[in-house]
Write a structure and sequence with these properties.
The protein is mainly alpha-helical. It has two domains: 152 residues, no CATH class; 141 residues, no CATH class. 78% of the residues lie in helices and 0% in strands. It contains twelve helices and no strands. Helix 4 packs antiparallel against helix 6 and helix 11 runs antiparallel to helix 12. The N and C termini lie far apart (89 Å). The N terminus is likely disordered.
């Protein structure tokens, strides 16, 4: 092994002292990757609970509607529809709270959004129950499908909203700091992973492909849903290559088994930190763009729902 490779190995893996720099030295915040991973798992767990709850409510409504306990036109069906309509109407209190100055002191936006989400699930569920999952006229069909479109776009919006609070500039700074410390920045002449060139190439390729990806809707969707999986695949490839390189070096230098394990774990930690930082930057860009696109698409559905619902209510009471 060359002297430069040996020096790089000592720098990144700590040959004389088996202490690897903690996350704060790379990210500027204590245990950033652990916190980020934990936050991501909690967010995913909440998503699963929310979506399973929605699916359960829709399934329960369909089951009740099949029992023949009421029809859309009788008293029970009518008042279920009224309750659902009122809940849908109350949904507009959330944008009222957000965008009008006189409502700025009406409690925290966080709790208003929670109520908005509950109403956005409860209202459409009651409307579906009211209709017994059937539409009897053109205006009812337009109102129903407009409501479903708004509800589904609301679910998508909730998914994005839970992730849109990332700070792109902060995440970029974290990545740049990692690049500089790992020697993967273009300005650096020597990488701290010079002893494993294939790993170095994979990391640089991953960063170039994701952070500088072509900006379009398909790219954003891929980065939202496929990128975390792809990240783990790249990490496993890097881990296998590091293991092979370090095993060969361990045999050549006659390392103690404990030394080999510590050095391998330290190298894997560096790779994992770097891949996490790249993924955070790419996903932050994707979420911000998708959220802006979603907001543009969501508003027309809302207007269509309001118009069709008014027509439906007028038609029901007029005829």
């Amino acid at each position: 092994m060359s002297s430069s490779s040996e020096s790089a190995l000592q720098t990144v893996l700590g040959v004389s002292a088996f202490d690897f720099p903690d996350s704060s030295q790379f990210t500027g915040r204590p245990a950033a990757d652990a916190v980020g991973n934990q936050s991501g798992r909690l967010s995913l767990s909440k998503d699963i609970v929310v979506y399973l709850t929605i699916a359960a409510l829709v399934g329960l409504s369909w089951k009740i509607s099949q029992l023949g306990l009421f029809k859309a036109g009788d008293d029970t069906g009518y008042w279920i529809g009224v309750a659902g309509g009122v809940m849908m109407l109350l949904l507009f209190s959330y944008p009222l709270r957000k965008h009008f100055r006189f409502a700025r002191n009406w409690g925290r936006v966080k709790w208003w959004f929670l109520v908005h989400m509950i109403l956005g699930v409860g209202g459409p569920t009651l409307i579906l129950l009211h209709s017994t999952f059937h539409v009897g006229s053109l205006n009812a069909a337009v109102a129903m499908y407009s409501m479903i479109a708004v509800a589904l776009s609301g679910v998508v919006g909730r998914f994005l909203y839970a992730r849109v609070n990332c700070d792109l500039h902060f995440e970029r700074a974290i990545l740049q700091d990692l690049q500089a410390r790992a020697g993967l920045d273009e300005a650096e002449k020597r990488s701290r992973l010079v002893f494993a060139p294939k790993v170095e190439e994979r990391l640089v390729e991953f960063e170039q492909h994701e952070v500088h990806a072509r900006a379009n809707g398909l790219t954003y969707l891929r980065q939202m849903f496929w990128l975390p999986i792809y990240q783990r695949l790249v990490y496993r490839q890097c881990a296998v290559e590091l293991r092979q390189v370090l095993l060969a070096m361990a045999k050549q230098e006659r390392w103690h088994k404990r030394d080999y394990i510590v050095r391998k774990n330290n190298a894997n930690m560096l790779v994992n930190q770097y891949l996490n930082a790249v993924t955070r930057v790419a996903q932050c860009k994707a979420v911000e763009r998708l959220f802006s696109l979603w907001h543009v698409a969501h508003i027309p559905f809302v207007y269509l729902l309001v118009i069709s619902a008014v027509v439906h209510v007028v038609a029901v009471h007029a005829y």
